[in-house]
Amino acid sequence: ARRVQKKIVHPGALIKEMMRTRNLSKERLLASLRIEASDFDALLNEQRGIDQDIAKELARTLGMTSVEWLRLQREFENKTKQGR
Question: Do 3 and 36 contact (CB within 8 A), yes or no?
Answer without folding.
Answer: no
